[in-house]
């Protein structure tokens, strides 16, 4: 996959804009998912994920092809998400509630096809709740928890994406897990 | 609730990260067998991880790719062409020469002495003298051929006088004022004009 990506990147750098469509196609779901989990809102997630792809395109000449493209792209995306979260901090709790509704809508669409209504309701509540709990995490824990448990990335990759030492990533994951644990206990 | 050495909680997290040493793992296991509180803590942490891992996969909306592509900035041709001209002055001279020799430029050479002026609603023409009266604002460029221009009001644009004089005291002209007398200068004016048009064509791409 990396070979294909590097080939497409070279084509884009030579001026072939269409080659970028393949890159977007390969990474769109991963990046959108991170943005959705970070922001808890479909519209914002779409906006920020698109913005990340556009910034990556504009700055493609500065991407080091010896490193993983996904790491670089995630880095652009998470930075944009963190900026967005910090800008809207005052209505933090309001957003968390909106986030729950979004998850519900989305999941009910997926669930309707393959599950019984009862199971769908049960699942819906769980999905609703997961997004709500993620949204309640302070942003410095939210990003590491999302990258580790939703995207299933290695601690090393997370440290590159967030540009922080491995030790800091570990500490944040530990604290993030503890914060989540307390949230779940204080039901 | 009794408080255990915090190292055991650290070991729990090391265990969950999958990078616990054999020594720490041994020590944690032994402690958990004898300490219900830490057992409970470990249990809750495992549940927390299971909970977050059960998050459904989320996919981007179907139109996502298309929308990104449509939002990509278009390649800036004008920058490339301007740079190309700067790097190839000889070719630029050749391009200008072609323009210089082209029928439109030569055909428009003022080979008569006839007076002419750009049509504007609020200018006064007397004989071969054009006046922009005080208090009037003329929008756009004015070109006067074989005549003079007196500006007492304002011109929101460029003023070009060919084979004539530009006279102004308190005039306000937002653009450039140019007086052209010689045939060469006329051609040069046309070339610049043509060149700017050429540039405009490229930058509008
Ligand atoms: Zn204990």
From TrEMBL, chain A:
<dbReference type="Pfam" id="PF08281">
    <property type="entry name" value="Sigma70_r4_2"/>
</dbReference>
<keyword id="KW-0731">Sigma factor</keyword>
<dbReference type="InterPro" id="IPR014284">
    <property type="entry name" value="RNA_pol_sigma-70_dom"/>
</dbReference>
<dbReference type="InterPro" id="IPR039425">
    <property type="entry name" value="RNA_pol_sigma-70-like"/>
</dbReference>
<keyword id="KW-0804">Transcription</keyword>
<keyword id="KW-0805">Transcription regulation</keyword>
<dbReference type="InterPro" id="IPR007627">
    <property type="entry name" value="RNA_pol_sigma70_r2"/>
</dbReference>
<dbReference type="InterPro" id="IPR013249">
    <property type="entry name" value="RNA_pol_sigma70_r4_t2"/>
</dbReference>
<keyword id="KW-0238">DNA-binding</keyword>
<dbReference type="Pfam" id="PF04542">
    <property type="entry name" value="Sigma70_r2"/>
</dbReference>
<protein>
    <recommendedName>
        <fullName>RNA polymerase sigma factor</fullName>
    </recommendedName>
</protein>
<dbReference type="InterPro" id="IPR036388">
    <property type="entry name" value="WH-like_DNA-bd_sf"/>
</dbReference>
<feature type="domain" description="RNA polymerase sigma factor 70 region 4 type 2">
    <location>
        <begin position="129"/>
        <end position="180"/>
    </location>
</feature>
<comment type="similarity">
    <text>Belongs to the sigma-70 factor family. ECF subfamily.</text>
</comment>
<dbReference type="InterPro" id="IPR014294">
    <property type="entry name" value="RNA_pol_sigma-W_bacilli"/>
</dbReference>
<dbReference type="InterPro" id="IPR000838">
    <property type="entry name" value="RNA_pol_sigma70_ECF_CS"/>
</dbReference>
<dbReference type="InterPro" id="IPR013324">
    <property type="entry name" value="RNA_pol_sigma_r3/r4-like"/>
</dbReference>
<feature type="domain" description="RNA polymerase sigma-70 region 2">
    <location>
        <begin position="24"/>
        <end position="89"/>
    </location>
</feature>
<dbReference type="InterPro" id="IPR013325">
    <property type="entry name" value="RNA_pol_sigma_r2"/>
</dbReference>
Automatic annotation (TrEMBL), chain B:
<keyword id="KW-0812">Transmembrane</keyword>
<comment type="similarity">
    <text>Belongs to the zinc-associated anti-sigma factor (ZAS) superfamily. Anti-sigma-W factor family.</text>
</comment>
<dbReference type="InterPro" id="IPR041916">
    <property type="entry name" value="Anti_sigma_zinc_sf"/>
</dbReference>
<feature type="transmembrane region" description="Helical">
    <location>
        <begin position="90"/>
        <end position="109"/>
    </location>
</feature>
<dbReference type="Pfam" id="PF13490">
    <property type="entry name" value="zf-HC2"/>
</dbReference>
<keyword id="KW-1133">Transmembrane helix</keyword>
<dbReference type="InterPro" id="IPR027383">
    <property type="entry name" value="Znf_put"/>
</dbReference>
<feature type="domain" description="Putative zinc-finger">
    <location>
        <begin position="7"/>
        <end position="39"/>
    </location>
</feature>
<keyword id="KW-0472">Membrane</keyword>
<protein>
    <recommendedName>
        <fullName>Anti-sigma-W factor RsiW</fullName>
    </recommendedName>
</protein>
């Amino acid at each position: 996959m990396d070979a294909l990506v590097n080939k497409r990147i070279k084509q884009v750098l030579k001026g072939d804009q269409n080659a970028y469509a393949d890159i977007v196609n390969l990474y769109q779901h991963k990046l959108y998912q991170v943005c959705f989990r970070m922001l808890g809102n479909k519209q914002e997630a779409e906006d920020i994920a698109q913005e990340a792809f556009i910034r990556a395109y504009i700055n493609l000449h500065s991407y080091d092809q010896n490193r993983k493209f996904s790491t670089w792209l995630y880095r652009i995306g998470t930075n944009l998400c963190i900026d967005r979260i910090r800008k809207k901090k005052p209505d933090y709790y309001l957003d968390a509630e909106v986030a729950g509704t979004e998850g519900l809508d989305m999941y009910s669409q997926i669930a309707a096809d393959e599950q019984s209504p009862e199971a769908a309701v049960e699942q819906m509540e769980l999905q609703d709740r997961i997004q709500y709990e993620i949204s309640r995490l302070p942003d410095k824990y939210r990003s590491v928890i999302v990258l580790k448990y939703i995207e299933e990335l290695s601690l090393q990759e997370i440290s590159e994406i967030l540009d922080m030492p491995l030790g800091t990533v570990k500490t944040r994951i530990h604290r993030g897990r503890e914060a989540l644990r307390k949230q779940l206990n204080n039901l | 609730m009794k408080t255990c050495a915090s190292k055991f909680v650290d070991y729990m997290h090391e265990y969950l990260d999958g990078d616990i040493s054999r020594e720490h793992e041994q020590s944690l296991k032994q402690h958990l067998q004898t300490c219900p509180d830490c057992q409970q803590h470990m249990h809750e942490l495992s549940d927390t991880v299971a909970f977050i891992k059960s998050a459904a996969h989320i996919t981007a909306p179907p139109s996502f790719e298309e929308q990104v592509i449509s939002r990509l900035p278009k390649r800036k041709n004008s920058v490339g062409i301007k740079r190309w001209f700067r790097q190839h002055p000889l070719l630029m001279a050749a391009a200008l020469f072609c323009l210089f020799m082209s029928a439109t430029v030569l055909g428009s050479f003022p080979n008569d002495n006839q007076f002419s002026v750009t049509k504007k609603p609020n200018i006064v023409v007397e004989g071969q003298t054009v006046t922009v009266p005080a208090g009037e604002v003329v929008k756009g460029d004015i070109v006067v051929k074989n005549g003079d221009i007196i500006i007492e009001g304002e011109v929101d644009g460029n003023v070009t006088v060919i084979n004539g004089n530009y006279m102004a005291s308190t005039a306000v002209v937002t653009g450039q004022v140019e007086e052209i007398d010689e045939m060469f200068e006329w051609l040069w004016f046309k070339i610049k004009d043509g060149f700017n048009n050429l540039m405009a064509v490229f930058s509008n791409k």
